[in-house]
Amino acid sequence: MAAIMLLSVFFVSGALASCPEHAQPLVTTPQEMEALSGSCLQIPCNFSINAEETFDRTGPTSGLWIKSNYYYYFGSKVVFNGNMMENIYPMSLTGDLSQKDCSTLFSSVITSYTGSYLFRIDNRPLRRTETCDPLQIKVKDSPRSPTIEIPGDLKEAESVTVTCSAPAPCPHSPPKLTWTLQQDPPNTMEENPDRTFTTKIQKTLTLTDQHDGFNITCSASYPVNEGKDVKTAEETKTLHVSYAPKDVTVVVSPADPVSVGSLVNLTCSCRGIRAADGFAWLMMMSDGRLHTMEDNTQLYVFEVTNSDRGRSYFCGCSNVLGLQLSKGRALIFE
């Protein structure tokens, strides 16, 4: 531990220089990473050297991680040294330094590990510390809510794929995703372009009007504390499906029975949000002939006559997805 403290003093006392203008970053990692307390964090990491520098792949090489809560200069300390048996933080190099792979596993993280981290490569005479592009790590007590992806402009009879995904900062103990679309969905883990990981579930739906207003709830359960506990987050989204008009009916008011000379209101009723863009009224005469009465009005008002006996009234609702006609509605006379 004393050696670690000496290294800390060494870095603070001048090895952490400011970033020169147009300098080439030493390390390639995600700019920011978020971890869950009680779990681990897999840090993808590669390093490169300048053309004028020499890297001996066969020589002794060590990697170090330096934490600075105040950017580069103040409060910096070596929290991991690959040559040490004991380190301040529970980190281990999983990459092959001879291949310039400095990937690191950060185990059993806690919130106090939040901060800026700099990587140092020691391959004497080459000794370089990343000062231009520190890795920002945030450790939180609660997981981030999963993300539900629903394609836009959902329409009846279309097939769409709904996806729920959640980050897997600890791919050794990824989150388990479940949702209201199906029981025990198969979870898959995908590697992202930045070499982090994401867990996903997917379901393909053939949409009907019954899906309109349906709530999809997805839960992500993260094992923590070596699997002894679980932390869960969830997200809910609602499907909004456009569909042709359904359940078209003619509503009579005042209610039957009617009398000759009275005014009657016929309303064309359609089920569903955004169900109808247009309306049409038809009348079937007592001899079976069909007569168009009115277009583009949901309410049809008329005075009852004896001629209305035996007639049936129909209405139609239409939108860009289709047209539906009601059943005939005959008036009941006193």
TrEMBL record:
Pfam families associated with the record: C2-set_2
Gene3D superfamilies per UniProt: Immunoglobulins
Domain Ig-like: residue ranges: 143-240, 245-326
Transcription regulation as UniProt keyword: no
Keywords of the record: Disulfide bond, Signal
Signal peptide boundaries: 1-17
Top-rank lineage group of the source organism: Eukaryota
InterPro entries in alphabetical order: CD80_C2-set, Ig-like_dom, Ig-like_dom_sf, Ig-like_fold
Protein name: Vascular cell adhesion protein 1
